[in-house]
Write a structure and sequence with these properties.
Largest sheet: 3 strands, parallel
Helix content: 10-25%
Order of helices and strands: EHEEEHHEEEEEEEEE
Shape: elongated
Length: about 180
């Protein structure tokens, strides 16, 4: 089963699984579970078999990486990696992509270390805050913003527990609102 177009309502059967269900992302065995269930229905004093459900693909992408990271591409198989090519295509300050495919919401030593580091200290690099946007960023310990620009009519507020560092070519343009608060 699957959708050729995520906004469409037409459902495809076995052997016709379109690429959305096979795009890279957290894997899940939903189709295998359905295939293995051998569904039956109660009909009076007997139960009847509801048919042979076959899953030509045992796993599918539960949350496609392209969708989860809002990657600006039409390529469903874009090779999202933890490198300089993927981050600029997302609206995020930073991202974490595991080296191998994982179950949806799997907790690993690597992603725990990454998230704890992100909660303590934030590095913002090479970002442009466009006119008409408002963004507030919090960090328990420190924020460093470098090589970034706050455009006219944009609003950027940074809150950190101990330190905020402005480095590189940081610029808050005339007509923007920039606040840095250490509390």
């Amino acid at each position: 089963m699957g959708f050729d177009n995520p906004k469409a309502t037409e459902i495809f059967g076995p052997g016709e699984v379109p690429s959305w269900d096979n795009s890279p992302g957290g894997g899940r065995n939903t189709l295998a579970d359905i295939d293995d269930s051998k569904p039956r229905a109660k009909c009076g004093f007997t139960s009847i078999k509801l048919g042979d459900i076959r899953a030509p693909y045992r796993t599918h992408s539960f949350v496609p990486t392209i969708s989860a990271l809002d990657i600006s591409t039409d390529d469903l198989f874009f090779p999202a990696m933890m490198d300089s090519t993927t981050l600029p295509l997302t609206p995020f300050e930073d991202i974490f992509i595991p080296e191998t495919n994982e179950e949806h919401a799997q907790i690993t030593a690597k992603n725990v270390v990454w998230i704890l580091k992100k909660l303590d200290q934030i590095l913002i690099s090479g970002k442009t805050y466009a006119s008409g946007t408002a963004k507030t960023i919090f960090a328990p310990i420190a924020i460093e913003i470098q090589n970034s620009t706050v455009k006219r009519s944009a609003n950027l507020t940074l809150h950190a527990g101990a330190e905020i560092r402005l480095s590189g070519e940081f610029q808050a343009m005339s007509g923007s609102e920039f606040q840095a608060k250490v509390e």
